[in-house]
Amino acid sequence: MPEAMHLSQRARSAVFAPLAQESRAEIVARRLSDAIALGLLPDATQLPSEADLAARFGVATVTVREALTALRHRGLVETRRGRGGGSFVTAPPDPAASALLARLEEVSPRDLRDLGDHYAALSGSAARLAAERAGPDDLARLEEAMKDLDNAATARERRRAEGQFHVEVAAAAQSPRLTREEIRLQSEVGPLLWLALDDGDAHESACTAHRTLTRAISRGHADRARTLAEEHVADAVGLALSLRRQAQGRRA
């Protein structure tokens, strides 16, 4: 009989972490709300019919109806009756930089680094696979996403373009699971990680990082792409930690 493994305290904590208590309707609602938050489903976009959404998500129509009801209560979707009716996105305005900074201060440095480690691993894997698998259409979308950040004039546009670029990298990896996780993380922590893009120098640095990463992916340099993606996330975490320290210093 094999000997029992003696888990470290950290490993044991990970094993026994609380489970997410989500119903299928909540999962559908979260996926749609994440896409709305990232601008993947822009304001006024008409969603597919309930039957079509149910088929795409592989759930019952009643589950989709419950998810849409939850989104309506949150002000993210409105339903119009009659001819030309349906469910339409009503995207809320992005939070102000001051509100995001307040959220950033609530995240401990340890948790922020942990999120960064998780995100760097995901981003690096997506970039490596994109370099191995991306086709001409994928590369064209990456180029467009890269230009969107180059041309973004406001802090809101920069944060959104940054998040969408990373989603396109994951999509180019041709892994639906990776893409869904990328969207989830961008919605959860992206606005905090890209808060530093308000600064012009940080914006230019991000644009340069995108161009270098896109070049590595287009040339099929998988290991190089992974390293660049991981470094880009590490730089973002470092800037976020610096912003957090500065904000707390001003309060002291």
Automatic annotation (TrEMBL):
<dbReference type="GO" id="GO:0003700">
    <property type="term" value="F:DNA-binding transcription factor activity"/>
</dbReference>
<keyword id="KW-0805">Transcription regulation</keyword>
<keyword id="KW-0238">DNA-binding</keyword>
<feature type="domain" description="HTH gntR-type">
    <location>
        <begin position="22"/>
        <end position="92"/>
    </location>
</feature>
<dbReference type="Pfam" id="PF00392">
    <property type="entry name" value="GntR"/>
</dbReference>
<dbReference type="InterPro" id="IPR000524">
    <property type="entry name" value="Tscrpt_reg_HTH_GntR"/>
</dbReference>
<keyword id="KW-0804">Transcription</keyword>
<protein>
    <submittedName>
        <fullName>GntR family transcriptional regulator</fullName>
    </submittedName>
</protein>
<dbReference type="InterPro" id="IPR011711">
    <property type="entry name" value="GntR_C"/>
</dbReference>
<dbReference type="InterPro" id="IPR036388">
    <property type="entry name" value="WH-like_DNA-bd_sf"/>
</dbReference>
<dbReference type="Pfam" id="PF07729">
    <property type="entry name" value="FCD"/>
</dbReference>
<dbReference type="InterPro" id="IPR008920">
    <property type="entry name" value="TF_FadR/GntR_C"/>
</dbReference>
<dbReference type="GO" id="GO:0003677">
    <property type="term" value="F:DNA binding"/>
</dbReference>
<dbReference type="InterPro" id="IPR036390">
    <property type="entry name" value="WH_DNA-bd_sf"/>
</dbReference>
